[in-house]
Amino acid sequence: MPEPEFDHPADGAGESADDSAGESSVDWSALPEPLRVRLAELGADALGEMAKVDVPQHLRPVAKFAPTKRARLGGSQVVAGLRDSANFRTAVVEWLRKNRPSTLEVTSPDPVTAAAAAVLTGDDVAPHYVELVSRRVGDATLRAERDAAVVRAERTESELERLRSERTQLDGAAERVRADAEIELERLRKRLREQGVKLREAKDAAEAAAGEVEKIQLRTADEVKRLVAERDRERERAETERGKAQRAIADAEVARQSAREARQADEVRLALLVDTLDGAVTGLRRELALGGGTGPRPADLVRGASASQGTVGRVEDPAALDRLLALPAVHLVVDGYNVTKTGYPELSLSDQRDRLVHQLAVLAARTGAEVTLVFDGAGVVAVPAAAPRGVRVLFSDPGVLADDVIRALVTAEPEGRPVVVVTSDRAVADSVRRRGAHPVPSAVLLARLGRV
């Protein structure tokens, strides 16, 4: 059976794949076994010489294994690390590029090697190579089934040959009987006519034997046809059941992942709401304890005026920002480039990000506020591997604006939790204010950071 062919990517495709490693549409849960083994071997080889900071936490015990046992005993963990950690996958690619560059050649004649290189580098042709390896594995399975059918056919052919031999023997016996009968006829021709009756009986027996042999041949041919048809039905049924099983496994995994993410999100929202309510109750108790006594105050009984409804306003000075950051369980969300391009536009984008991240880390350490910093992901060549303690750094996905990420962060918080959004974008400020957040101009935050 001819193998399916795929065009190898051009020489320049490998570089673009390195910049977007892990972004291809490869389904890691459906990788064929030879490709999973090759990825485990490559990851295990790189794991032993990799810097500890590049090794995911769950792979550090595997890195301590002997090199000959690392891929065999920790192969599944290595493949999971390659699938889940872009940093680990990038580190493996860099190690292979330095030590075993031939393993990253997508143009390799070996489809498993080419598929592994395409998956690791995130090449656009990775799904095609995965499909090619899967198809070759399927072809190998079909060849094994074909060989088994051939063996059964050979057994049938052997049985048919045995029957043919028996037929030959019967034919020989018939010929001997016929010859004996002719000799006997010639010898007894002078005898009584009754001897001729015996000769006719011998001929009838030979014809009956020949008819029986023909019936056996017909039964053998029918049995061979039945076995071939049964083999084809079993093969189709096995392929159908395998497809159903794979779809069921994929659906179950998606359902489990969705349920797990929903449960985690609900638990985080509940914990934040409880912390917010706890801080509010503590403040209320402290306020009630200041004046002593119970019951309404004289000022509460004055008519002709109404208390403020607590509408969200715009913060215009660092002191007001400090009061917001002193609220219990407050969440500070910062529009990154809106702040950096207001405060220090002369710096490169990378330097702008680094400066703002470190300033916010100091602010988070002093105020105890939860800080989330959002940048537009478009045009970012290298994303920092880790942010300083206390600052969550997010980059919007391709095709998604940082403004939409900020709105989603505000919407995701439980009702009642104080959220402060730093941006000078009027549209963003108005939309988060409608969601109950406190908008703060970028200049106010920069003035506050200047005192850090």
Short description:
The chain is mainly α and 452 residues long. 65% of the residues lie in helices and 5% in strands. The relative contact order is 0.07.
Annotation keywords:
14 helices; disordered N terminus; 3 domains; five-stranded parallel sheet; mainly alpha
Output mean pLDDT: 79
Q: Please estimate the helix content.
A: 55-70%
Q: Quick one: overall form?
A: rod-shaped
Proportion of residues in β-strands? 5-15%
Helical element count? 14
Through-space gap between termini = 72 Å
Residue windows where pLDDT falls under 50 for at least 5 positions: 1-23, 290-295, 299-311
Strand order of the largest sheet: 3-2-1-4-5
Find the CATH topology of the largest domain. Answer: Rossmann fold
**Helix and strand pattern:** HHHHHHHHHEHHEEHEHEH
Task: Write the CATH architecture name of the largest domain.
Answer: 3-Layer(aba) Sandwich
- The CATH class designation of the largest domain is Alpha Beta
CA radius of gyration is 41 Å
Give the total of domains.
3
Number of strands: 5
Structural class: mainly alpha
> What can be said about the biggest beta sheet?
5 strands, parallel
What do these coordinates show?
There is one protein chain. By secondary structure, the protein is mainly alpha-helical. It has helices at residues 13-19, 33-47, 60-63, 67-84, 86-99, 111-121, 126-188, 194-291, 318-325, 336-343, 349-367, 402-412, 426-434, 442-449; strands at 331-335, 370-375, 391-395, 419-422, 438-440. It has a 5-stranded parallel β-sheet, sandwiched between helices. α13 links the parallel β4 (419-422) and β5 (438-440). α4 (67-84) crosses α5 (86-99) and α10 (336-343) packs across α11. The longest helix has 98 residues, at 194-291.
